Amino acid sequence: xxxxxALLVDQDGTMVDTEPYWEESEAALLAELGGTLxxxxxxxxxxxxxxxxxxxxxxxxxxxxxxxxxxxxxxxRVAAKIEASGPPWMxxxxxxxxxxxxxxxxxxxxxSAWARIARTVADGAPAGGFDLVVAxxxxxxPKPAPDAYLEAAxxxxxxxxxxxVVEDSPTGIRAGLASGxxxxxxxxxxxIGPSADYSRLTSLESLTATVLERLAAxxxxxxxxx
Length: 226
Hints:
Layout: E1 6-9, H1 19-32, H2 39-45, H3 50-60, H4 67-85, H5 93-103, E2 107-110, H6 115-123, E3 132-134, H7 147-156, E4 163-167, H8 170-179, E5 182-185, E6 199-200, H9 209-216
Parallel strand pairs: 1-2, 1-4, 2-3, 4-5, 5-6
Helix pairs in contact: 1-4, 2-3, 3-4, 4-6
């Protein structure tokens, strides 16, 4: 049996727990425009492109503002929080990175977040870190389009059909499936139901060498159904 040609992993909610940073920053920015952030709005924002987040916020705002400047402002607020305390790694993320490095599997961080945030996260990664970063503002179409995953596979020289995408959100799942990669989901903030199209694991800790071999061979694994 063989391992995946590359692991293409989502950032927010999968590798790092930055959703609280995003929520705090979005709530503060929207409050400055006379609006209130709601749970329903957050559901629409998670995992998606930054412009969708801004559009959702502006629809709830009492005062308008330039969308492009809002994007810049929001990114800077989140990046500042990460820089102040370091990347808030998911509990199993450091060991996952070390395990992937020991297995010799190329590892890419693929995110809808802008490069300003993604590279701040990558720079704070444990030893070995990521082979490359593909951010949402570095491709023509961010998730749910497959562009970022296709670009990561291209730059790694790995056939996309032999790559494994690791995601946590519906938007990211759609991007991974559309790329042609195999997809494994580790549900986070949003519940993710079962599907014949992807596997579901409870944690990054479950991505052992044995499980990676099974996934690379095309096996569907669902720890929530076991």
